[in-house]
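Priority: low. Protein: DNA methylase N-4/N-6 domain-containing protein. Input follows.
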Amino acid sequence: MNYIGSKYSLRDFIDNTIKKVVGDNPSDMVFCDLFAGTCIVGLISKHELAK
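Result:
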């Protein structure tokens, strides 16, 4: 994906894609924020995916 702009506007898409891959209960998994330039993806996912 070649996207230049706010990842915040993609938060629902990113969250839904993660849930499709790992399921609705990712509490026993480790999350790596590969979009860490602005940390927005990590902040959005912090409560559900953080260990």
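The first helix runs from residue 11 to 22. The chain has a mean pLDDT of 71.
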